[in-house]
Amino acid sequence: MVRLVIKNRSGQLLEHDGQSGISLMENIRELDDSVDAICGGLCACATCHVIVDHNWTDQLAQRQEEETQLLSDSACYVEKQSRLSCQILLTEDLDGLTFTIAPEEF
Ligand code: FES
User: What is the CA(36)–ligand 1 centre distance, in A?
Assistant: First the structure.
């Protein structure tokens, strides 16, 4: 299990035991007030936007250009901290990963 610390869209702080080997989005989409992920992880919608705690940004694999392009169109884009949760593979070394679900934009 990979412990996730999440601030959801209602401002609640949640702890969730995530499963490694699948994306962060797949781990969190069923939680209350979480990501919508309407494209299902195809890097095409940006509704799985999360803002990663600054202590964790360097521990994630770098963004691909496609991900950066989608995120930079968002009104709540935070240059170093914004990520598409569907593009993050959850691994055991991310135990304790802390992030905020970005506000809904549509
Ligand atoms: S689920 Fe659509 S971009 Fe991540």
Answer: 8
Residue 63 lies in a domain: yes
β-strands 82-84, 49-52: how paired?
antiparallel
Q: What is the pLDDT of residues 89-98, one digit of tens each?
A: 999 999 999 9
pTM above 0.85, yes or no: yes
CB atoms within 10 A of CB 88: 22
Euclidean distance between CA atoms 90 and 50, whole angstroms: 14
CATH of the domain at 28: 3.10.20.30
* Ligand 1, atom nearest to 35 Cα: 1
Query: What is the domain range of residue 8?
Result: 2-101
